[in-house]
Specification:
Layout lengths: L8 H8 L13 H12 L6 H17 L1 H11 L4 E7 L2 E6 L6 H27 L5 H25 L5 H8 L4 E3 L12 H17 L20
Helix pairs in contact: 3-6, 4-5, 4-6, 5-6, 5-8, 6-8
């Protein structure tokens, strides 16, 4: 009886060694997998460092707009008339029109201007950086708040002197003069950042970029062959 023949060693190694798959038509799901790697994760935006830099630029640019808001507030706000008098050798200052609503108009003018500036800044930022991002939204809101503070101080600086007693002495007893700009409702400082934040988020929700839909292979599902 003879022993069974065995294949030569070189033939066994050639048949059992792993061979790379030959180039040919790809499987139905391979194109989707490659798209997921290259299309979704390979182009994932400019990076956090770039987004933070852009947010800082937006915050500074928006805040500088507060100078224009302050000038417009000083120009458009109604004047509050005051009058000075001497009582027991001491100067006192009164409102000339005690039932007037000029002081409310000063706050209302600042609020309306803040809402307008918030809408414009949100629209400009959306058109320039349509992809959005959390740092960009934070920079927009922070710039609006800083711009409101800057506008408040610029308006007060451009307005009449804050020392009303000295002003009354300068113009004389019983002479009407204009009160300095004063923001009675400090909540008006939030009109700009809130308007910018709400409008920008609304624009992103309506017209912002959308994530690409995954592409699934056509045809019925086929289970992988059993091993």
């Amino acid at each position: 009886m003879t022993a069974p023949l065995t294949p030569p060693p070189h033939e066994h190694s050639a048949q059992g060694a792993w061979q790379p798959p030959a180039a040919g038509p790809r499987a139905p799901g391979s194109q989707h997998a490659e798209y997921a790697v290259d299309g979704w994760y390979g182009q994932d935006g400019p990076g956090m460092r770039t987004e933070l830099r852009e947010a800082a630029v937006v915050a500074v640019a928006v805040a500088l707009g507060g100078v224009l808001l302050g000038v417009l507030w000083w120009w458009l706000a109604p004047h509050v008339p005051l009058v000075g008098d001497v009582v027991e050798k001491s100067w006192v200052v009164y409102l000339k029109d005690t039932e007037g609503e000029q002081a409310i108009g000063v706050d209302g003018t600042f609020t309306l201007l803040g809402l307008g500036f918030g809408a414009v800044s949100a629209l400009v930022v959306f058109l320039l950086r349509r992809r959005g991002g959390v740092p960009l939204v934070v920079g927009l809101a922070l710039g609006g708040l800083l711009g409101s503070l800057l506008a408040w101080r610029v308006g007060v600086w451009l307005g009449p002197a804050e020392d009303v007693i000295a002003h009354a002495r300068e113009v004389g007893r019983g002479v009407t003069f204009t009160a300095p700009l004063k923001l009675g409702a400090k909540g008006a400082l939030l009109a700009w950042p809130l308007a910018a934040l709400v409008l920008h988020l609304g624009l992103m929700a309506l017209f912002g970029p959308r994530d690409p839909e995954p592409e699934f292979p056509e045809g019925p599902y086929q289970a992988p062959p059993a091993v």
